[in-house]
Design brief:
Elements lengths: L5 H19 L20 H22 L10 E3 L3 H23 L16 H21 L17 H18 L6 H19 L20 H21 L6 E3 L2 H4 L4 H21 L17 H24 L8
Antiparallel strand pairs: 1-2
Amino acid sequence: MKTITVPFLTFIFYCMTAVVLKAAEVITPEPISGKDSSSLADILPADVLARVNLLRDELELIRFEMGKPKNTQKNPQLKQAAPREVFFQALTLFQKSDRLGFEQTRKRGETPRSLPAAQIRPVHVWHAVDKALKRLLIIKRKLEIKEKVAEKIQPTSIEPTDVFIAIVQANRQLNLMLDQQFSPSDVFQQVSKAINYNTRLLATFEGVKRLPDTPAYKRGQRPDNVYKRLLGCYAQLVEITKLSKVNMLVLTEDIKTIRNKTPSDVYDIASLLVSELAYLHSLLEESEAPAGVYYPGRKFPSHVYQRAGILEAQLATLLEQVNKNQKWLGAQ
């Protein structure tokens, strides 16, 4: 009987692994409109919405199979969304899809490539959504779900705002399906990113304190308290962008719905703040990149509320400085 050597067994193992990895690959279709997904000009918000709706239909099949609750929150009230703002929500969509994928398959997906905010176009949003869809299709195959759904062409009149709203609703549904839902620790990281971007913006002005003192810690804060504080930060940022002649998404909140906000909702508005601050940062000439963030360990809403207080104070300082020099962008 012939002896099988260890190298040969190793070769067989690698072959089997390659087959498994290849079998795990998922190929998604090109845009249903027939547009070129590699072209900056071809992909329209309508193509992106078609892909988001396909993802939501696939997500509904998975939700039903898992027996998870259905999202019943109303659409957010907003207007004038830009592709850069939609892209950051699409990154959140991927992160949540990837977390769900890891919980179900123990494998991670390839993170969408980051881009300077000023360069983002609908095609970049489409690719981020498509990566999230691939994560869901792997879950669908793992759960042996046989039903198929078809992508539907959307009207060319679709605006980025329509896509933004659809992604927010998909994000809310995803969070309800996660074993490890987005937590205050995740929000803490996003607020830290916003603070780091604001630190670089404040460096534009000489003699300005970039990092204010940490406010007092207040126990017993809830996600809705954090949401309200970040909403106040957003209002400050709206004033800053108006003075700076920069367009920004307009967000309207019903005060009655804020008390029902979850850490996932707080994460979404924190991500929106990051997207706007990143865009302002991209308009500065030769500004240093902001510092990175790290996992802060377990945090409670009170910790995030305290952290958001730093951002609030920073934005108050930035607003004061921009009031004095409304042509600050692009001239350090």
